[in-house]
Amino acid sequence: MSFLTSSFLTSKHRKIIYLLIVLCISIYTPKIVHAAEAGRFVEHVYHDNAGDHKYVVFLPNEYTPQKKFPVILFLHGAGERGTDGKRQLTVGLGDALKQRKSSFPFIVVFPQCEKRNNRILTAWSAGTPDGQRALSILADVEQQYSVDKTREILTGWSMGGYGAWSLAEAQPKRFRALVVLSSGSFIKKPAKLKQLPIWVFHGAHDTIVRPQQSQKIINALKQAGGKPRYSVYANGQHDINRAVYNNQKLIEWMLAPQADGLENLAAALPPSQNKLNTINDSEPFVPAMEISQAASLRLGNHTLEAASYAIPEMMDVNSLQGNIGNISDTTVASGRTFSINFTGITYQANVQRVYLKALADGNFRIQMAVSNAHMMISRTYVRGRHRSAVAGPIDIQIGIREPVWLSVDVKPTVVNRKIKLQPMSTWFEIQRGNWYVSAPRGVSTRGLFMTSERVSASLVRGLYGSKSRIESEVMGAVPSIVAELESRLDFRKLGTLSSSFWPLPVYHPRLRVWPESVSVNAEGITLGLGVTVAAFDYLHAPKAVQQITLPKISASTFSHQKGLSIGVQPQVLHSITALLVDSHVAHINVLDLPEKTFGDFANPQLLANLIPDLKKQGNDIEISAELLLSKPLDLAMPPKAEKKEDTAQLALSAPEVTIALSIHKKGEAEWKPYANIQFRLKQQAAVQLLKPSFTKRAVRMNWLGNPSIETRFRFAKGSKGQPKNVNTKELQQLFIAGWNHWTKNSSTDNTPVADFAFGNVSQRLKSIGWEESLLSLSLGNPLLRISNRSKEPFSYATKSPLSDWGSPYTLKPGEHHDFEVPYAMMYRRQTPTGIELYQLPAGSHSEFRVPSPGGSPALFKASEPGE
């Protein structure tokens, strides 16, 4: 007899025991997941004494409760804090997962840090509410899903990286591996982590958390006996998330982590992932401000010619094929009148070459070399009195010997913030002997003397005699071709390029550029551009989009330029930073700044000597000091700025930067506003164009001289302190020390600027400076270089996309040849064993040398610094 059916238990007792068993099973048995949840993000809510907390779980495509899966706990960065439960997916691992959902083999847990006003670097730390909740949410997931608890991976980016180090130090034996990106650490006992497999990633150009922070903890771990992996992306900045989390080597390592101490496993970011600092293109773009007359773009004829090489490959084949309406005609044969109807007419063609040129009459010319144009007439009906015929398909081939040029003069206008190209005149002529009309494929006839041979010959003669009609039909396809070119006019990259000159290390704006005016002269096209600025916090975007109109830019500013030039009004900085101030996000605790000298403003002992009233607050007070941008920044050209091709001098003014002090006694949760120290700052700087290597370009902000600073101190409302007793002069010196330390370090930071690509054509940054009142960039064709690093001369030939092979060049040892071309160039060299044939990318550098293992010289990609 079983215990549950024993007579010792009443029916009521048995029901209670059954309920307890069911409850235990429901708690400790993994959740049975619907098949639809596998391979996607699943939203959850975690409940505790503080309330409800939203989080997200990603389930692998192959998820099943019958199998145990490894799990990753991801801690996000500062920009994704909140309570919406979704923002933590927009940057980092969540963003990377969207590109490989079908193949990612881990369950991933995405908690969200909810405290937005606390310190950044300690937000996820062990013992904090958000840090503890992250671990509780992980435990919650492990109860609901089939998780292998022996394979927990902890990873974090930026702010999340600091938290990952802290949680790992607090529970060093819990996690199977630790992966940290773009972060530093406050761990005190690195020896606790010496057995843990660790992989750290950092961008060499990170100005938010400098790579020295990662190097410091790596050194400490090694000294403690650990073997962490460390990878530095030579051209990476702070936002290296996509490159790292999409790295197949990392995914394989997390499946079987090892502490092997390997380094330099990620030397360079792919070009598509070499993005500017902290520009998050995964968040929704919610417009907050529109700035009219923000910038000017000049497309000179040299740039238009360069773009011409890219257009044929970028054109949609559907724009070069289509249908033509039925054509009706009449003819007289043997004294009888016949009606002829050509039906089911289709066409398709290849554009072999395009040439663009601006004209003095305000239009610009598009010339297209059309080859292998094929027109097919599916069926032809011939009708006369008591006689008729039906002919099968007739083929018309145009451009059988050489391309036929289709020339269109268009007038550009702006309609609804888009460029519209209005055809003004079209010219197309088929040269004699450069086209062919086939006989119909089958003819059926009815009536006396209507033979298939006579009908076929008459139709062919008639079509040859209708050349002008065929030319007219070809020109009728021009509107669809022009519409295709319109669709390729994309200004989005200009917003990213403009962000290169953002003077702050954080809060890079997201911009969308749109045309608002266009003018043409004989040297090129000038576009007036407006800018839409996204809300800095899309979850709290302003209800109405703010409209700003700046002074009109003269169309003559760049009218002499023949290349690609972009000019930005300096007032744009004022407008965008005004939006930043109004968004209430431009603040940071001084202890979270990369420059630790600002931390003196949070030192109670130091400040008590400068603010005597602090001594009255007791010996057990703590100070929170936040740096705030209180008023927008201003930018202008200095009155006596020197004109240099590689430098743009700037006069930067910050009318009000505030350090807000709050105090509380140790152990208290709430902070009480105490005082504000306001600084008015002016300093000159120079944006310098750098050439780190033959193929790379970068910009750097150099601060010139000493800042001019005015300081004002005032106590918070309700405080009884006396401002006259405050040593304002010494407070100002503290600020100057922090400012100078930051500007000194930032003067060593280079921001890479990638080539501006249009299809397979590239334009490279050539100069920076002022053009009248505009801060301007000029770009042009990059140089393609071939160097001879061998001890013997060699000969080679080259070919452009539209030319035949040219005569051979001979390159002597130690010398190089430069080709200023915007396109990829073919290279050919005869060798004893065959032909060496390569396509050399635009702006690349190749070298002829002996391979490292030895052997005969050959052409290789030249190595770049950091590779």
Automatic annotation (TrEMBL):
Keywords carried by this UniProt record: Signal
Region (Disordered): 846-867
Matches recorded under Gene3D superfamilies: alpha/beta hydrolase
Keyword Signal: yes
Record carries keyword Chaperone: no
UniProt cross-references to InterPro entries, sorted A to Z: AB_hydrolase_fold, Esterase-like, Plant_Biomass_Hydrol_Est
This protein's name: Phospholipase/carboxylesterase/thioesterase domain-containing protein
Organism: hydrothermal vent metagenome
Species classification: unclassified sequences, metagenomes, ecological metagenomes
